Amino acid sequence: MSVIPGLLEFNKQFVEQKQYEAYLTDRFPEKKMAIVTCMDTRLSELLPRALNLRNGDAKIIKNAGAIITQPFGSAMRSLLVAIYEMNAREVLVIGHHGCGMTNLDSTAMVNKFREQGIPDLTISTLENAGIKMDRFLKGFSSPEEGVRHSVSLIRNHPLIPQGVSVHGLLIHPETGALEVLAEDYRETPAPSGGAS
Which amino acid positions bind Zn(2+), per UniProt (predicted)? Predict the structure, then answer.
């Protein structure tokens, strides 16, 4: 059964009771920032609360793992619109601990496609057209790596102006605690791997 009837019933009451008035704002981010973060459901309300953000404070772009994979893909386009059309002056890439994109198994994903009825012919046609599933479905070895990759791609993008700061953070998906990985143009060193 679809969730649509229940959503529409709630929405009708929401509009009739004018509950939307608490969220009225314009399209420009009040805090002049854009956030690239993960689509993880644990962050839907936690992330804005942990950052003290209200409706209208920031442009929030969500995708799996907070990863910018394509320098000219939809996430980067959204960032460019936020900067050039909405006056965002800072970008925050916020990954999180326990992210499902960590060590994502592309072979297992392709098998799930098959289990859901996607024919082998479709998968091989995509592969032959240059869509390599192991690259398309690539995750990262750690959330820190994913954040650092996205920060680097954004900072080095030819269309990002020098005056826009790009920061990288991790959020704990249960407590909301933040950890800074890259602030402005100064990165914190990556862990050496040895125990201290």
Answer: 38, 40, 96, 99
Is 97 marked as binding a ligand? no
Query: What is the total residue count of the chain?
Result: 196
pLDDT tens string 149-180: 999 999 999 999 988 999 999 999 999 999 99
The rounded Cα 124 to chain-centroid distance in angstroms is 29
pLDDT confidence of 37, banded at 50, 70, 90?
A: very high
184 annotated among ligand-binding-site residues = no
What is the count of structural domains for the chain?
Answer: 2
Q: Is 134 annotated as a binding residue?
A: no
Find out whether 165 and 91 touch, Cβ atoms under 8 Å.
Answer: yes
Residue 10 domain flag: no
Look at residue 178 and tell me if it is in a domain. yes
The range of the structural domain enclosing residue 120 comes to 105-138
| Domain assignment of residue 12, yes or no | no
Q: Are 117 and 58 in contact (CB under 8 A)?
A: no
26 annotated ligand binder: no
